[in-house]
């Protein structure tokens, strides 16, 4: 009896220690983030360009695996400070019968559809996000090529979600791919679930956003694939929020839309908040991915200057001697410059200039040092120097 009591006592002690550790770490993360965010600087963008923050890859009650309403999505977008949302419910005709594209309470909603690919060996399956569709078509009756042609004929653009099947990416009509997807990040590290479970059990009520942040990782495989594909052709990188608001554990809603939207986002540099303007920015790669829950990245810019002219991320220019690359960041961090998939320069700074040594695909990453850990914060789209 005494032995049994001491085992129960040890287990309870163990649980309360884990609870205390979880609480302490998350409180310190919250405090440190507030400190970092207080140092943010306001930065100018090139004339006529504005930074529009949005969530791409969002599901609602029009998908079989979500109950989210239009009102909840718009309200959450406002709370998260978004300017736009790209709806990508799973393929079905109701998406277009009950669509809610257009401006709602100041939030631009762009209509899209998530299309499953027939073959899939590893979950979540690679799929296509058709963005800017005007009407429904049934992709299950079409070949992949016919599907992509139909999307293009409607004036829409295609991004690859959950990019795990490389063969689905090597297609001329695809605009880009997710370089980070929330679901991929969660499913790729099951070893982490016990710790996550304790954080949810003990700390979710008080530190919901910090618990959500604990899933964040450097998307190494996605970025490696992206860099590899960029050698063949331009592929625009976006974030996949894959927001469903459908995960409850121990009675706690782990993925409310507002937190999913704040966690990671796709920023577009465009002239106006209109569907035409944002789709053009998306197609051009005038975009970067950022974990906004760490700090507000608006004002970030990756550009190249030659002969007094400026090119921004997503653009292509011819190589000429004397060109420089510039990264400006609203927070000091570790800024890394990548050329053809390899890191060529880095500094702990908020502003970086670098002389271009030759043609290549250049992009920038920014990391923030938080809790003795280097956290990925921003991934720019590349500048292509030929
Ligand atoms: Zn999805």
Q: Helix/strand/pairing class, anyone?
A: alpha+beta
The succession of helices and strands, N to C, reads: HEHEHEEEHEEHHHHEEEHEHEEEEEEEEE
By CATH, the superfamily of the domain at 50-298 comes out as Metal-dependent hydrolases
Shape by Cα distribution: globular
The CATH top-level class label of the domain at 50-298: Alpha Beta
Strand content: 25-35%
Bound molecules: zinc ion
Task: Summarize the biggest pleated sheet.
Answer: 18 strands, mixed
Distance between the termini: 77 Å
CATH topology of the domain at 50-298: TIM Barrel
Number of strands: 20
DSSP helix fraction:
25-40%
The number of helical segments is 10
Average of per-residue pLDDT values: 89
Radius of gyration: 22 Å
Low-confidence stretches: none
CATH architecture annotation of the domain at 50-298: Alpha-Beta Barrel
Task: List the keywords.
single chain, 386 residues, alpha+beta, TIM Barrel, 18-stranded mixed sheet, two-stranded antiparallel sheet, 10 helices, 20 strands, 33% strand, binds zinc ion
Quick synopsis:
This protein has 386 residues and is an alpha+beta fold. The chain has helices at 2-37, 70-79, 94-97, 144-153, 182-187, 193-203, 208-213, 220-230, 257-263, 275-284, and strands spanning 50-58, 84-90, 102-104, 107-116, 127-131, 157-161, 176-181, 236-240, 248-249, 252-253, 265-270, 287-290, 301-306, 309-312, 316-317, 324-339, 342-355, 360-370, 373-380, 383-385. The protein has a domain at 50-298: TIM Barrel (Alpha-Beta Barrel).
């Amino acid at each position: 009896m005494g032995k049994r009591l001491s085992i129960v006592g040890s287990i309870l002690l163990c649980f309360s220690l884990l609870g205390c550790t979880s609480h302490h770490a998350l409180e310190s993360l919250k405090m440190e983030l507030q400190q970092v965010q207080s140092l943010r600087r306001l930065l100018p963008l090139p004339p006529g360009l504005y930074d529009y923050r949005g969530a791409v890859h969002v599901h609602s009650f029009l998908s079989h695996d979500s109950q989210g309403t239009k009102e909840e999505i718009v309200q959450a977008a406002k709370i998260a400070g978004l300017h736009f949302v790209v709806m990508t419910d799973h393929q079905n005709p109701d998406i277009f019968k009950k669509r809610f594209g257009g401006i709602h309470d100041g939030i631009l909603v762009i209509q899209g559809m998530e299309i499953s690919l027939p073959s899939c060996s590893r979950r979540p399956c690679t799929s296509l996000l058709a963005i800017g569709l005007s009407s429904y078509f049934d992709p299950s009756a079409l070949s992949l090529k016919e599907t992509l042609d139909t999307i293009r004929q409607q004036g829409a653009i295609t991004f690859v979600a959950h990019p795990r099947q490389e063969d689905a990416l090597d297609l001329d009509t695809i605009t880009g791919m997710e370089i980070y997807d929330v679901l991929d990040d969660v499913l790729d590290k099951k070893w982490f679930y016990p710790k996550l479970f304790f954080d949810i059990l003990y700390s979710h009520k008080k530190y919901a956003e910090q618990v959500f942040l604990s899933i964040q990782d450097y998307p190494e495989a996605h970025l490696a694939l992206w860099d590899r594909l960029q050698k063949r052709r331009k592929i625009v990188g976006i974030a996949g929020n894959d927001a469903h608001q459908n995960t409850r554990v121990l009675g706690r809603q782990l993925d409310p839309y507002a937190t999913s939207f704040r966690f990671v986002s796709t920023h577009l540099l465009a002239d106006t908040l209109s569907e035409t303007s944002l789709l053009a920015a998306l197609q051009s790669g005038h975009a970067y991915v950022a974990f906004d829950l760490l700090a507000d990245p608006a004002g970030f810019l990756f550009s190249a200057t030659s002969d007094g002219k400026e090119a921004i991320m997503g653009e292509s220019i011819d190589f000429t001697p004397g060109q420089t690359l510039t990264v400006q960041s609203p927070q000091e961090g570790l800024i890394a410059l990548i050329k053809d998939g390899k890191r060529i320069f880095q500094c702990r700074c908020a502003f970086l200039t670098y002389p271009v040594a030759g043609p290549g695909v250049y992009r920038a990453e920014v990391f923030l040092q938080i809790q003795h850990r280097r956290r990925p914060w921003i991934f720019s789209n590349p500048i292509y120097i030929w």
